[in-house]
Amino acid sequence: MLKILGTAPLGKKRLDSGEAPDAKSPEAKRPRLGPLLGFVPCLQPLAPSPSTEEHDARVLQIGPYVLLEPRDGGRSYRAVHRPTEAEYSCKVYPMRSYQEAMAPYGRLPPHPSVARVAEVIQGDRSAYIFFPPGHGDMHSHLRRCKRLPEAEAAALFRQMAEAVAHCHQHGIVLRDLKLRKFVFADRERTRLVLESLEDACVLSGPDDALSDKHGCPAYVGPEILHTRPRYSGKAADVWSLGVVLYTMLVGRYPFQEAEPTLLFSKIRHGAFAIPGGLSPRARCLIRCLLRKAPAERLSTPGILLHPWLAGGGGATQEPCSGPSWRQGLDQVVPNVGQEG
């Protein structure tokens, strides 16, 4: 028996080894043993296909929706709403984990840069969560165009930072933040939304200290790799945003090695190089995010105050050493330091 809930206010994962390969790309392969010059794929366990309890083997129909080809190794499906012929994306969860998966979505007020649930249909053993369709994710976009001009990157990264700031403001730590979680909401690829919040942690109070350690190795902060039992979840998200920004502007991850032990050693040391050609303000923001000490990183409100974003990205070559933005940062991140 199905129960249709309508618009719903909806997350956990171990340490994987990079981002998942493109669902439709014929080039998607397992990680190679040689040096990785581009993106490291993230191996994730495959979720089971939807239960056939509510439909027969010929037509995957859930309520007013028809499920079409699977995506992401069977973790989601393209769906069509039969009465309107509108397209949606459908994720399937066992009923025992459905409420936990929905929790981050239920905590967050609406935001233009965060995906919202369109409808939830509950079966006897599975829950079907429908989202508006996307137009490709940022990881796939960068695989095609390698890297972005600063003005384009600034416009898109601002939306990313706004989405993460909205989550942090309302007690959500993302934990597994990466390029693939940002999906284009329009065909022109000018609007991004953060989706797949199922792995996020819902905080019970102002303390954002976490003890579980998971995510994609290319994005994890050095504090997660140390033996200390707890770390700041919000600061770890900011580090991941720094990896995202570096990759958008440079075309590769700041820390790359074929062997995980070598990769983690590089991340622990926090040493990376920024190629020439980027504006001083872009270089400054990258360094403000990828600081080894979590307390020295910008907070998400501080990121939005940075002059590289305020200036449209590469609009000026002046360094970001002026007093105005740093005075504003005193209210949100007192330990911000000079570029270096």
TrEMBL record:
It holds the Pfam family Pkinase. Residues 1-32 are annotated as: Disordered. One of its GO terms (molecular function) is protein kinase activity. Residues 62-309 form the Protein kinase domain. GO terms for biological process: positive regulation of proteasomal ubiquitin-dependent protein catabolic process. GO terms for cellular component: nucleus. Keywords: Protein kinase inhibitor. Gene3D superfamilies: Phosphorylase Kinase, domain 1, Transferase(Phosphotransferase) domain 1. The keyword Iron does not apply. InterPro entries: Kinase-like_dom_sf (IPR011009), Prot_kinase_dom (IPR000719), Tribbles/Ser_Thr_kinase_40 (IPR024104). Residues 13-30 have a biased composition (Basic and acidic residues). It comes from the Eukaryota. Belongs to the protein kinase superfamily. CAMK Ser/Thr protein kinase family. Tribbles subfamily. PANTHER family: SER/THR PROTEIN KINASE-TRB, TRIBBLES HOMOLOG 3. This is Tribbles-like protein 3. It comes from Alligator mississippiensis (American alligator).
